[in-house]
Queue: 2 jobs
Job 1
Amino acid sequence: AQSVSQHNHHVILSEAASLELGCNYSYGGTVNLFWYVQYPGQHLQLLLKYFSGDPLVKGIKGFEAEFIKSKFSFNLRKPSVQWSDTAEYFCALDKAAGNKLTFGGGTRVLVKP
Amino acid sequence: DGGITQSPKYLFRKEGQNVTLSCEQNLNHDAMYWYRQDPGQGLRLIYYSQIVNDFQKGDIAEGYSVSREKKESFPLTVTSAQKNPTAFYLCASSIGGQYNEQFFGPGTRLTVL
């Protein structure tokens, strides 16, 4: 069975710092990959997704992620964070032609003003 | 206004009682999902349904039941057999098929006393 690992459970950084959140998965076949974000008191929403093509994908609010197949990774990055990026971030995997997502444990990010 | 609604936002029940959580969507999506969110464990799939009158168990189905009699509705019953029912429950929907971007509702926080 597939699994998703997010090694950082909590990240604290200051505004304008760069952010990188790790996501590794275990599954040998073709995958679709997602990053979701849950802002305090809000719905879980999609940040970005990778289905195929360019392994560097750009999402909303200045986020991007890079799919590195050889490393089974899909790390999330943002060059300069803002206080409003305080949230919990989830990486998720879907086997291509599959029908259900497998989520990582999440990373809580706190951006200090 | 399209979206997913879950009611109520907060729910309290006594131990030993069954409780049903509501999930409705007006996105005309074929697939619907129920997840349970616990701190540090991310989202875990309880049940999912790809089409009306059909549903499958997810990773943690024990102690839960669902029905899918209408396309727009996917209620979840937390039975007295669920050993640790206190959690945050999220409902999601998607078009289904290969590109499984899921849209989430606001969630219901269930507390069993």
Job 2
Amino acid sequence: DTGVSQDPRHKITKRGQNVTFRCDPISEHNRLYWYRQTLGQGPEFLTYFQNEAQLEKSRLLSDRFSAERPKGSFSTLEIQRTEQGDSAMYLCASSLGEVNNEQFFGPGTRLTVL
Amino acid sequence: GQSLEQPSEVTAVEGAIVQINCTYQTSGFYGLSWYQQHDGGAPTFLSYNALDGLEETGRFSSFLSRSDSYGYLLLQELQMKDSASYFCAVYSQAGTALIFGKGTTLSVSS
């Protein structure tokens, strides 16, 4: 399968714990995005990488959130000191370098904070 | 900033035609995209309009009027498998991230 993959698919954690999610984009895609989606809402943009550079961050991305894409390939999203409000589906997407190219989404990581 | 409005729910029967409207407000417009998302699934791309007019892809068509900040997704010959959420989206000011509407849930019955 050559699509976007995410790991883990589900994560249950207790409030205050740290969690880390991984995204493997389509191999030739240099753009990578993280979104968050809650029930009944559309995906909300969190952050964007072009190659290894993090070029855009949403105001939604509080200082408890950090994302990396160390070699311009896979990316990680870490949430520190999780809160119940962080419970959501975290989606990763990738695209080719042209502006306005189709974004390909992964299956998401569903986070539940107890 | 960017904002989009679309109806929250639409219902239809198999074989019918449905139009899902989307109005948007944006500073800096690159185009209007449509994505489909089945329950528990990932959003998948349906169409993209950068210029005014109608784009047709099989049973689905998408329309854009930039002067009216309006677009729609037209689904023809509806099938049960078309039951899903449909999102319109515009690009952020930087032309990178997608800003999604809240989605329209389409229910197709037999």
